[in-house]
Every structure is written in C-alpha cells, then in structure tokens.
Amino acid sequence: MNAPSSSRAIDDTPSVSSAYAIAPPATDPVRLRTLTLIRWVAIGGQVLTLLVVHYGFGFPVPLAPAFSVVGASLLLNLIVMSGHPTPVRLGERSAAAFLAFDIMQLAALLYLTGGLENPFSFLLLAPVAVSATILSIRSTIALCVLSVASITLLAVRHYPLPWATGGFTMPREYVLGTWVALAVGIVFFAIYTWRVAEEARRMANALTASQLALAREQQLAALGGLAAAAAHELGSPLGTIAVVSGEIARDLPEDSPISEDVRLLMSETARCRDILAELSARSDDGEDRTSPFALLPLHALVQAAAERHHQDHVTFSFERMPSREDDTSPEPILVRSPEIVHGIGNIIQNAVQFARSTVSISSCWDAETIRVSIRDDGPGFRQVVLEHIGEPYISSRANPGGHMGLGIFIAKTLLQRSGATVAFENARKGGAIVDIEWRRAQLEAKKLELSA
C-alpha cells in the first residue's frame, strides 16, 4: 500500500471499477434508418422550396441542375433502402460520411441559389449539430472543417440569388457578416451540443453502473437467502441418512465387503452437514448474507456494511449513541436494504483507501433523524474535488489524482434512493468526513411495511 499523498482525490478501488466498469461508447452510434428519415424530410423541403420560389414567386431558379442535386440525395436514399432492407446501425466512419454528403449536397444547392445570400444557408448548421450529438469529437471537428470550407467557397463563388427582373445583390459587408455568423455558429453549436450530449452519455453510463451495483447487491442477498433455505431443507434428509448409515454400520460384520463403503458414506454425510451448518451460520450472523427482509439495529447494519472492506493496516472504530444525551429514543431497527448496505460500504471503502490507520464510524439517532458519520485520518479531499464530488467520471482537470469517482457516485445515488442526504467535508484537524442522514420515520415506515 503506497503512503497517502498530501491531498486526497476520489478513488475507485479495483472492486468498484472492475465490478461496475461501463463499456466504452458503442462503435455503432446511430441507426441508418434515422439518417435516411432525416434526409427524406430534407428532400421534401428542398423540392417544395424550389417549386414555390420558381412557380409561386416567379423567381428564375435553375431547376434542372437544382433538381439534379436533390436527385443525388434521393438516389442515395433509394440505394440505401434497397441495400439494407432490415434495420442496421452505422459505424462512426459511415455516419460521418453520410453527414458529410448532406453538407456537400446542401452546399451545392446553395451554390446554385445565391450562396450565403440565400436565407436557407443556416441549414448548414444541422449536420454539425447531429454529428455533435451522436459522433465523437474527432468526427465532429472534421465535419466542422468541411462546413466552414463550404461556406467560405459559397461566400466567394455562387450563382446569383433568384430574384425578380433586375436582380438583387447583397453588399459584401453583409455577406462577410453572414460568413462570420455561420462560422461562429458552426463552432459554437458543435462545442455546446457535444458537451451537453457527452454529459448526458456520462450520466447514463454512471446510472447504469449504479443499477448494476444494486442488482449485484440484490443477487448476493438472494443467494444468501437461497443458501439458508438449502441448509434448512437439506438438514433433515442428511440427518436421516446419517442415522440409517450408522445403524447399517453397526449391523455389518467387520469382514463385510461393503463396510468400507458405508464408512465412506458416513464421513461424506458428516462433511455435507458441516458445510450446511457453515452456510446456515453465515446466513444467521449476517456476515456474508444481507437478506433484504432481515431487520437489524442501526449499528449492526453499519458494521455489516463495513466488514467486507476491512484491511489489516486500518482499524475500524465503531460508536453508537443518541444524538443528544437527554434523548431516550431507542436505537432504530432497520430493514437491511441493498441500497443502504452498498452505499455505506462504498463510502467506507473509499475512506479505507486513504486512511493512515483509523476509520471512525459513528451511528447516531434521535426521534426524528438517523445519522451515520464516516471519518478517516487521511489527507482529506482536495478543494477542487469537493466542488465536484458526487458527480460521475470526474475529469482529470477536477481530479488531479486521475480517478473517476464512480464509486462515490454509486454510493451517493444508492443512498439518495433510500431517502438519505449525503454531505462531504474535511475535518479541521485533517481527514475527510462523510455524513449520511435519513428521516427516521421514512426508514421505519419500510420496517412497518415489511412487518405487515
């Protein structure tokens, strides 16, 4: 174990990071059908606009070349639909190529209809926004470069804007302003949309990790219950086998050819009974089994959550007391829920990781609240970490230690799911403190529901 650093970051020990690691983003980020549907909408809008401008307003639009450009999108969609009759997902490169085609197709259409003087030039922002939502930052940057190159070309060369007799030309200053606005918009939309989408993806991954943690805790609880039931149900028949085999052994003569087999049967039966007795003991004392239907005093629940994270170099100090000396409220008896057990356990695990020698865990209560306080004698949290603690996947900028903080996020999420509020702070004399507080009535209501 390395000596603690002078300042504490959030750590995910191997048991957390390996058990609940989230797979990297999917290599097939978008369905082909989604992009083709968007293109169908674009084709319909382009055809309608060209017809309205040419026949409705009477402006001279070069319909033949314009419809040829629209026809290229139509042909691509038909080829895609005939080649992929069943739903498929596009990879990163394929999706980026589809969006690049859309940018070039729209740029070609704008080239024929006035360039940046055409008010529909803002639609060049759409493929970039879609890319920022579903693709990686590298692909988004590439499409941004393509879009900026397209608007630069359109600012310099393009067919005249379709207009009435005599034409209409925008001042160069206006065209330049439109180019600047589009360039800034492309970059801004790409960065902003990508950041928002990335945050949503991170949160979704972290919540999935929390669900996996809870599911694992529930599976362990169910497995413990199954072990207890098996020990109880198999105890009787094994006892009968032991009695019958003992009687057979007494009745057999010493030189019987099956006496050795009977002795082996008796020894294996005794071994099975010992195994079942051990399973039953583990189920009864709560060390390895955490049945969601078991009721435990507050201090026992906390000790059970801490036991699995004990390490030789750290001493656990448990304390239980009412919050006030004059309070006569009895110690709460709580349902041993997987959320509470795993949430407290993860926070204790983090404390053990950074503690020098001691982790102090106190359980307090009064008539209205229940509080569990976990304190270690380590270096404490970095101030920059305290500002972001509880967020999933804390970045290296906020967390110089390089850890992602997923374990703390899981713990906080599960505890909040149980109705707790979780507060993190540094002690004045060093070390970190995590306070977990519930409304007593809320937790005891669950006990009443269980009893009913």
List the helices and strands and how they pair.
Layout: H1 14-19, E1 30-31, H2 32-56, H3 63-83, E2 89-90, H4 92-112, H5 125-134, H6 137-156, H7 172-251, H8 259-285, E3 295-297, H9 298-307, E4 315-322, E5 333-335, H10 338-354, E6 358-365, E7 369-376, H11 383-386, H12 406-417, E8 421-426, E9 432-439, H13 440-451
Parallel strand pairs: 4-6
Antiparallel strand pairs: 1-2, 3-5, 6-7, 7-9, 8-9
Helix pairs in contact: 2-3, 3-4, 4-5, 4-6, 5-6, 5-7, 6-7, 7-8, 7-10, 7-12, 9-10, 10-12
What does this structure look like?
- By secondary structure, this protein is an alpha+beta fold.
- The protein contains 13 helices and nine strands.
- α6 packs antiparallel against α7 and α7 crosses α12.
- Mean pLDDT is 78; it is low at 1-5, 12-26, 284-293 and 395-404.
Determine the strand fraction and express it as a percent band: 5-15%
Number of strands: 9
Percent helix, as a range, is 55-70%
Low-confidence stretches: 1-5, 12-26, 284-293, 395-404
SSE topology string: HEHHEHHHHHEHEEHEEHHEEH
Number of separate helices: 13
Strand order in the largest sheet: 4-6-7-9-8
Q: What distance lies between the first and last C-alpha atoms, to the nearest angstrom?
A: 48 Å
> What is the alpha-carbon Rg in Å?
34 Å
Please tell me the overall pLDDT. Answer: 78
The secondary structure category is alpha+beta
Number of domains: 3
CA-based shape? elongated
> Can you summarize the main beta sheet?
5 strands, mixed
